[in-house]
Write a structure and sequence with these properties.
The strands form two sheets. Strands 1-7-2-3 form a four-stranded antiparallel β-sheet. It has nine helices and seven strands. Helices cover about 50% and strands about 10% of the residues. By secondary structure, the chain is an alpha+beta fold.
């Protein structure tokens, strides 16, 4: 048995959140049902509601209205009701109006979540409403071959494509959200310069007066507020657009890290040169080389090298992480674009002609 989860993961890879898979399948089903032509839905199992008084309501407000009929005075003989704008409600009840509803040409309006049929239904002139029950759910573990019931294989294809597209959109967002928002919180501190460097001066040589090179990472400011809001509204296209913006921000951040690293390297080179000049001048002026001072400087030099290596390690690790996440993002996005196009083509076969040109998914 091939489940909906298996069908989706064959394309997306493993998705750990089964609840998300169930929700995305059910949402895709609802979207497809709201998009396809009424005539196609009528070929499936259609629910029937009857009433003999206004207002006429749909059970649990969970149906897509397909047709409304009213008996014309002969038991069991129904006439199709046509919908008119709500502002005509008074006129269609006025027998002298050109808009008046008749038993042979009944009309209805939608108001307050209910239907009002005119001439008003009665015990011997009942109303019959055809609707498609949209209160249908797909669970991640449901058999793809038999769920939802009464849907042919062709209609399941756009449902699957839409579910795959939404899942990939979510994975794109997860890739960006998986990056640490403060990647350089654990940066090491630079070593303290040695003191007590005696070169025969009246006071010790103080290299602490020099500006110690320090790596200053750029700020990383990623906000997921817009993405979270779009996901809450089930608008994966807007969520994807926001994630695309964050992806561009990550590319820019990568450039800023490179610039900060170059600045740090330049500072380090200048610092080393300044120390050399300071020591050279001290040795030249006083003609004294202190062995202890030389040892301190050697240890300090090694500590500075370790410090720079630690900085390089942190920077390279995060730059590599950005590169890998961007690669994943690109794969998900490219695949999502493919399935968006596949969905558009698949759903057109079930849409009324007047809607095909303006298809938006």
């Amino acid at each position: 048995m091939s489940t909906w989860k298996v069908k989706i993961e064959d394309v997306t890879g493993a998705v750990s959140d089964d609840t998300f898979i169930s929700n995305v399948c059910s949402e895709a089903l609802q979207e497809v049902v709201s998009t396809v032509d009424d005539e196609y839905l009528k070929s499936l199992i259609v629910e029937v509601a009857t009433d003999d008084s206004n207002p006429v309501g749909l059970p649990d407000d969970s149906g897509r209205l397909l047709d409304v009929f009213r008996e014309d005075g002969v038991d069991g003989r129904f006439r199709e009701c046509k919908e008119v704008p709500l502002y005509l409600e008074a006129r269609i009840q006025d027998g002298g109006s050109i808009y008046a509803a008749t038993k042979n040409e009944p009309l209805f309006v939608k108001k307050g979540g209910n239907l009002y049929v005119y001439p008003a239904p009665a015990a011997d002139n009942g109303v019959r409403v055809l609707y498609f029950d949209t209160d249908i759910l797909i669970a991640h573990g449901d058999d793809y071959g038999s769920t939802p019931a009464d849907f042919n294989v062709a209609l399941k294809i756009p449902i699957l494509y839409k579910a795959i597209h939404r899942t990939l959109s979510k994975l794109m967002i997860d890739v960006i959200a998986g990056l640490p928002t403060n990647p350089f919180l654990s940066l090491p501190s630079p070593p303290a310069p040695p003191i007590g460097l005696d070169f025969g001066t009246t006071g010790d040589l103080d290299i602490s007066i020099l500006s110690l090179p320090t790596f200053v990472p750029p700020n990383l400011d990623l906000s997921f507020t817009n993405i979270d809001a779009s996901l809450a509204d089930e608008d994966e296209d807007m969520a994807t657009a926001h994630s695309g913006k964050l992806n561009l921000q990550m590319s820019e951040y990568d450039k800023l890290i490179t610039a900060a690293t170059q600045e740090f390297e330049e500072q380090s080179a200048i610092y080393e040169k300044e120390i050399e000049e300071l020591i050279h001048n001290a040795e030249k002026s006083y003609d004294k080389k202190d062995k202890e001072a030389a040892n301190k400087l050697e240890i300090f030099g090694k500590d500075m090298e370790i410090y720079k290596e630690q900085i390089d390690k942190e920077v390279n690790y995060f730059k590599e992480l950005i590169s890998k996440q961007k690669e994943k993002y690109t794969v998900y996005k490219d695949t999502a674009d493919v399935y968006k196009s596949l969905y558009e083509e698949a759903i057109k076969a079930f849409m009324p002609e007047e809607k095909k040109d303006g298809l938006g998914v």
